[in-house]
Amino acid sequence: MVAEPTACPIPDVLRRIVIVGGGYAGTTLCARLGRALKRHPRDDVDVLLVETSPCQQALSELDLVAAGTEPADFCELWLPAVLKGLPVRTCFNRAGTIDCDQRTVTLANGQEVGYWRLVVASGAVPAVPPVPGLAERAITMWSVADAQRLQDRIREQMKLAASLPYAEDRRQALSFTVCGGGASGVEMAGTLGQLLPKRAVEVGLDPADLNIHLIEGKAEILPSLPAVQRTRAAKRLARLGVHVVTGSMVQSVAGGDVMLADGGQVPSAVLVWCGGTHADPHAEIWGFTLDESDRIVVGSDSKVHDLADVYALGDVAAFRDPMTGRELPMLAQFAIASAKHASVNLLAELDGKPTAAFVPNLRGEFVSVGPSWGVGWMWKLNVSGIPAIFMKRMTYVLYWWQVGGLRLAWRRGRELLAMQR
Ligand SMILES: Cc1cc2nc3c(=O)[nH]c(=O)nc-3n(C[C@H](O)[C@H](O)[C@H](O)COP(=O)(O)OP(=O)(O)OC[C@H]3O[C@@H](n4cnc5c(N)ncnc54)[C@H](O)[C@@H]3O)c2cc1C
User: Fold this and answer.
1) Integer Cα distance of 179 and 189 in angstroms
2) Taking the CA of residue 414 as centre, how many other CA atoms within 13 Å lie in the half-sphere pointing to its CB?
3) Which atom belonging to ligand 1 lies closest to the Cα atom of 142?
4) Which of 84, 105, 275, 366 would bridge 180 by S-S if both were Cys, CB 3.0 to 4.6 A apart?
5) What is the pTM of this model?
6) 251-287 pLDDT tens trace
7) Residue 313 alpha carbon to ligand 1 centre in Å
8) How many CB atoms lie within 10 A of CB 324?
9) Closest ligand 1 atom to the C-alpha of 93?
10) Using a 6 Å cutoff on CB, does residue 50 contact ligand 1?
């Protein structure tokens, strides 16, 4: 049984910065502010992180836990370890309500916390469309708990298949379908394609009985990558035994099958939904102005529209790229970059200086297709294969280093080298 969080000590200070959400954006911000305030201590300032869990979940590597070869803590970054020794206090509780007139956040246990500046970094949730049978049957991929659920389902299906005498029944029991051909869907399907045959051999099953599909409603997978990289990714998936089905939407899910709008039927004993995300729905409950995709409207300095003392960062914020006029995609690299910038702005505000505009810069994008191969681009150069997967993994080692220092980066590097491929 999980104990109800107790009230947090709230010191009486003049200027409290409350950060709601300790994901990529919130953790980066806490680490940055904490280090700056450690270098130049100020006793009139309090930084408080409100986060539901003491572990940040590294969502971008969930597929490795989901495939069942890595333990859950492979994807968990312990916040007390990251923030140890820094003047940042943590309160592991849920932000319930926010009152921007009174400048207060009320936690789930009823405790009220006043703020001088509030940073909303509460991320996003999976968006599951109202397709008959989908919500009941599909496993979403948005937390370590989701990844563990998939791990368990893989184990159950392997046990079931091992007990079945006919190949046709085993192929149905070992049918795995991933819906959504964006980065997270391709990563999931690629990891299943690469690791499940090894698991099957280990438990005495024939890998030829595995039946893995990736379904994408649009004409192509990975729309954000250059065409040549999309083709490479599709070829790699085919080589891993993943059947890619594009151009038809999922219409219903029933009896272990996914029915497609074009009449197709895909056997799916295990179904994983990676088909879309939605900004944290609390953004609406908290009364912020939202754009058409339900993300919080922010200005060029990441402050919430019409609110001089509230910032929104990461997936929950609708930040428009001044170069393209388009909303930034929901990516960890933008969450991290916007948080670094917000730390500079908050420190400037503490000194009574004006804030500056955030200028995002997408330097590259990498997608893994199986744990040991990837595609992507960097500085306008297409990169694929081992160099691409190396770059993808290094981005996150770098993240661990930026928030937790050399010790955590070293641990992460070792874990990545030791992981199964
Ligand atoms: C499977 C998967 C793979 C991905 N792969 C990549 C990738 O390869 N590269 C990439 O750039 N991006 C990737 N992404 C996207 C990336 O993970 C997100 O863009 C990133 O996590 C956004 O960071 P954030 O800080 O805005 O939100 P999050 O990291 O989601 O953090 C939000 C935090 O807020 C907390 N929270 C929410 N509500 C409350 C509340 N009321 N009170 C207190 N705390 C609250 C949550 O517990 C959570 O810790 C992937 C996402 C998924 C799901």
Assistant:
1) 9
2) 6
3) 53
4) 275
5) 0.93
6) 999 988 999 999 999 999 999 999 989 999 999 999 9
7) 11
8) 10
9) 43
10) yes
Output DSSP code: residue 302: S
Which residue is closest in CA terms to ligand 1's atom 5? 60
Does residue 320 contact residue 305 with C-beta atoms inside 8 Å? no
Q: Which amino acid is at 390?
A: F
Q: What is the pLDDT of residues 93-107, one digit of tens each?
A: 999 999 999 999 999
Counting atoms of ligand 1 from 1, which one is nearest the CA of 188?
1
Please state, in angstroms and rounded to a whole number, the distance separating the CA atoms of residues 34 and 50. Answer: 15
Q: Is the CB of 384 under 6 A from ligand 1?
A: no
Strand, helix or coil for residue 122: coil
Give the closest residue (by CA) to ligand 1 atom 15.
331
Q: Residues 315, 319, 320, CA angle at the centre, nearest 5°?
A: 135
Q: Which domains does the chain have, with CATH numbers?
A: 15-126+278-362 (3.50.50.60), 134-275 (3.50.50.60), 363-421 (no CATH)
Pick the residue whose CA is nearest to atom 41 on ligand 1. 95
Length of the chain: 421
Sign of the Cα pseudo-torsion (127, 129, 135, 137, in order): negative
Q: Hey, what are 401's tokens?
A: 């280093």
Ligand 1 contact via 94 beta carbon (within 6 Å): yes
Question: What does the CA dihedral 337, 54, 153, 60 come to, rounded to 10 degrees?
Answer: 10
